[in-house]
Amino acid sequence: MAFTSCSAAGEAHCHLADRGVNQLLNDKFAASRNIDALVKHFQAAVDEYHRGEWEKSLGKAGKFLEAVLKALLVEAKLPIQSGRQFKVDRAINDLAATGNVADTVRLTIPRCCRFIYDVTSNRGGRHDPDEVDANEMDATAILGNSAWVLAEMVRYAQRQGDLTQAKSVVDGLMKHRYPFIEEIDGRVYVDLKAAKSARELGLLILWHKGTRRISRDELIQSIRRQRRGLSLANARMAVQRLSDVVDDDGSGMLRIRGAGFRQADELIGQSDQSNARKSAKGK
Fold this sequence. Notes:
Number of strands: 5
Strand content: 5-15%
Number of helices: 12
Helix content: 55-70%
Largest sheet: 3 strands, antiparallel
């Protein structure tokens, strides 16, 4: 496939950006089933993180690391224990003991997996927590390390390519996978016809922010920026009507709660169904 819009220097980057993560990994890794699983679990961990579901995010990360280790074992031509017989410690030790594969597969990635395993195991992600509950700091650390593991696997699969370019591909999975929202210099824009009211628009802006807080005044201005002609009083009223689905830290900084995520997901689902019906009619 030719990439006529790329310069010679940037052709590799365009090649990466044009293909899905699964495809890029399957260029090198033979365990396509495990590759599909690890990408699925990574995306699920990201989604749960954006919803503020820290323990669920850690749980998905735990499944992600198991799929990663299985893919590495296949790459190293080592046996995989099936079902409950699979042990993370054994997989990491087996990889370290082999000598017929690159160090990133044998040592570097497994060491990062060890950290992911230790945190998820002790925060309820994989087993019942003893003393420490899952929290945002744990989930943030684990998601960042998981993203690094995935980017390093992409780099390895693309013949020791540029890690920066591999990371840019993985970054696409870190974002909400919906094209109707964009953020420019901190300003959020929503292009979704399902957001018929100012309140629904504000809800989707908060949904996009995820675990990040936004000031009440900034949210009001964001709504008015996209609802030309909307009075300041009506924008304030719209934000006030979101009080049952947001947390206010006491200084006017707002963050969406679980109920808000569910309402936003329903709104997005309605839009998806509407688009699907229109597409079906056009065929």
